[in-house]
Each structure stands twice: as C-alpha cells, then as structure tokens.
Amino acid sequence: MCVSVKLQFQIAHVSFPYSHAYGRSAKQLQYLRIGDLLTQRAQTESNRIAFVSEYENISKTYSQFEEDVNKLSKGLLDLGLSQSVKSMNSYNKLRGDVVGVWSCNSYPWVTTF
C-alpha cells in the first residue's frame, strides 16, 4: 500500500505586538554582522533617514549614522581596545576585549551596536 502525503508550509509571519517570527521561511538565513548590514544600507540608501529621536532633536541618514558608528569604533580602538584574540572562553570561541554599555534609549546608545 502506498500513501501520498502533500505537506504545505506557511511562510513565517509577524503581526503586532510580537517582536519575533517563527516557522519555516522561503528565504535563506544570511550570515552577516550588524556592521555589514549598516555598511550595505549606507551604500545603497545613503540619504534615507535611519534614525529619528524627537526628544533629542536628532535625525540621521544612513550615511551619517555609519559615519558616527565608525568614529565611535575608531575611538575605542584608539583607547587601546582590541579586536584581536585575547583568550578562549568557556565555549571555545576566540574573542577580544569586551565593553559593557549601560544607557537609556538614545542615539549614542544606538551607535554602540
């Protein structure tokens, strides 16, 4: 006896108020870092608004946002922080210096990502 089964999968869908999606997706997972995504967006949509904070009276385009992020990272490297390998952690992953940031939601806080 032969039985034929047709499986159907729905593409993941997010509806508010949820901040996550689950299930199968037709899109492949992309292995990119946040900084890589920002660089791509700054190259393709440099004049598009990326960040607005009314209480800080700030509006930044993707190119301005990328410039500020790069200034911060250069400043941290100039202070002596390192991206190079320091030690192995308990999960056998190589890592460099670690910085903790404690801040309210603000533009300077967003640039630390």
Query: Which segments are poorly predicted (pLDDT under 50) over 5 or more consecutive residues?
Result: 1-9
As a whole number of angstroms, the C-alpha radius of gyration is: 20 Å
Task: Indicate the CATH class of the domain at 34-111.
Answer: Alpha Beta
Name the quaternary structure: single chain
Overall pLDDT level: 78
Enumerate the strands of the largest sheet in spatial order, edge to edge or round the barrel: 1-2
Overall 3D form: globular
- CATH architectural group of the domain at 34-111: 3-Layer(aba) Sandwich
Structural class: alpha+beta
> How widely separated are the two ends?
58 Å
Q: How many distinct beta strands? A: 4
Question: Helix coverage percent of residues?
Answer: 25-40%
Helix-strand sequence: HEEHEEH
The number of helical segments is 3
Major sheet: 2 strands, antiparallel
Beta content comes to: 5-15%
CATH fold title of the domain at 34-111: Rossmann fold
Write a concise synopsis of the structure shown:
The chain contains three helices and four strands, in the order αββαββα.
Set out the fold topology.
Layout (H helix, E strand, L loop, with lengths): L33 H11 L4 E5 L4 E4 H17 L8 E2 L5 E2 L11 H5 L2
Helix pairs in contact: 1-2
Task: Describe this protein's structure.
The relative contact order is 0.10. Helices cover 29% and strands 12% of the residues. Helix 1 (34-44) packs across helix 2 (62-78). Mean pLDDT is 78; it is low at 1-9. It has a domain at 34-111: Rossmann fold (3-Layer(aba) Sandwich). The protein is α+β, with helices and mostly antiparallel strands and 113 residues long. It contains 3 helices and 4 strands. The strands form 2 sheets. A two-stranded antiparallel sheet has the order 1-2. A two-stranded antiparallel ribbon has the order 3-4. Strand 3 (87-88) and strand 4 (94-95) form a beta hairpin.
